[in-house]
Amino acid sequence: AGAGGGGGELQDKERLYQLVADLSREETREAALLELSKQREAFPDLAPILWHSFGTTATLLQEIFSIYTLLSPPQLTASASNRVCNALALLQCVASHPETRTLFLKAHIPLFLYPFLNTISKTRPFEYLRLTSLGVIGALVKMDDSDVINFLLTTEIIPLCLRIMESGSELSKTVATFIVQKILLDDMGLQYVCTTAERFFAVSNVLSSVVQGLAKEPSVRLLKHIIRCYLRLSENIRARDALRHCLPEQLWDPNFTACLRDDASTKRWLQQLMYAVGGGQ
Hints:
Elements: H1 2-22, H2 26-39, H3 46-52, H4 56-65, H5 78-96, H6 101-106, H7 114-117, H8 124-141, H9 146-154, H10 157-167, H11 170-185, H12 187-194, H13 197-216, H14 220-233, H15 237-246, H16 254-257, H17 264-277
């Protein structure tokens, strides 16, 4: 059985190398992108193989560049969106892997995704493109790496996330808010947002706007990230003082927060937030 398992592993490796090689040929690229993105969980070494194999990263970037002309005016079709999102899924794999994450950042690859985050068309192909691009950034911030946070702050990711938090789908809003949350949880990120009133109010006004939207269309997972953002902001003295005047009144309303009854950690965060900004209204 052991020998058979080893043979199967060898076949898998050969299949993987063949698919990566297929990326370099125009006629086999689309099928290879689809297959690799579907199978990426099955290949633990996929990220280093993609990064270190000749020309593969350039090929994935070419997929990204090729749809820039479809962004404005918005002409992105479902098939073009699906194809580039398969390429983005492979880049997310590279962004998540400890061996390739720093190389991915040093090459400034996230910057090539910012034009996708900057789109405003609400059609499904654009929504899927934004969500998949956010997934790549989300994979980076999950690693709790200060180099990642520093890169994202210096490249102005926060305004892009704030806009999606205001106008995206529920899922895109959730991932964008998660990214802002992870930035705030880093000391450098909290300091950045709280350094000027303009930055603080840009963030808190959008958080408040999302809460107003949740009054009409509730989402427990989105509310959870919003509350965590507010709680983290309350750890800064100036921000805490400001929150006493601009925390949305819905957060004090037991009917609004009743959806959290089964979420002990978020209920605790909310109680801590209420206590930090003054205990009651």
